[in-house]
Amino acid sequence: MKMKPLAGAALALALSLSAQAQQLQIADSTGGHQIAGVGIDQAAIYNGISDARGRAQNAQGMAEWAGQTAQSASQVASAAQGTASYAVGRAADARARADYTAWYNWNYTRSTAISNCMATGGNPVYCTIMADAQYPAP
Fold first, then answer.
1. How far apart are CA 122 and CA 11, in angstroms?
2. Which residues contact 130 (CB under 8 A, 6 or more apart)?
3. Under a CB-based contact definition with an 8 Å cutoff, are residues 96 and 110 in contact?
4. Which SS3 state, helix, strand or coil, does residue 127 take?
């Protein structure tokens, strides 16, 4: 159903006037005075706002402190990682030195055993086999 433009405007005006009348009724019901027993304690409101601001500021400070603590922990963890990496490197160096020393000592001992065997007239192949059997590689 189509509404005529004039009828639509009249309906909108009637609804608007009805809403204004309701607002006037509410405002007039108190006679423009504050209702007894419903006083507004502005000091309490301001104290509450001030308290909320203080708590928010404390929370912000705690959050900043937590961020700084996390950053410090990250730096400590990074330093610990660096120390651990250094320790791994030192351990690898120590192992390499131990391996080198073991091979050096084995070669020296093996060569000496082969030389001593050959000094008694032994065959070089036989002396090598005997030295390897007696002194296995590390």
1. 129
2. 113, 117, 122
3. no
4. helix
- For residues 117 and 134, the answer to whether their CB atoms sit within 8 Å is no
The DSSP output letter for 51 is: H
Give the tens place of pLDDT for each residue, 74-123: 999 999 999 999 999 999 999 999 999 999 999 999 999 999 999 999 99
Neighbouring C-beta atoms of residue 73, cutoff 10 Å: 10
Among 88, 135, 83, which residue's Cα sits nearest to residue 109? 135
> What are the domain boundaries of the chain?
45-134
The total of other beta-carbon atoms located within 10 Å of residue 107's CB is 13
Sign of the dihedral defined by the CA atoms of residues 80, 78, 81, 87, in that order: negative
At which residue do the structure tokens 């009828």 appear?
7
Query: Residue 53 has which token pair?
Result: 């601001």
Q: Answer yes or no: is pLDDT of 37 > 70.
A: no
User: What is residue 55's predicted lDDT score, i.e. its pLDDT?
Assistant: 93
Dump the DSSP string for 24-47: HHHHHHTTTSPPTT----HHHHHH
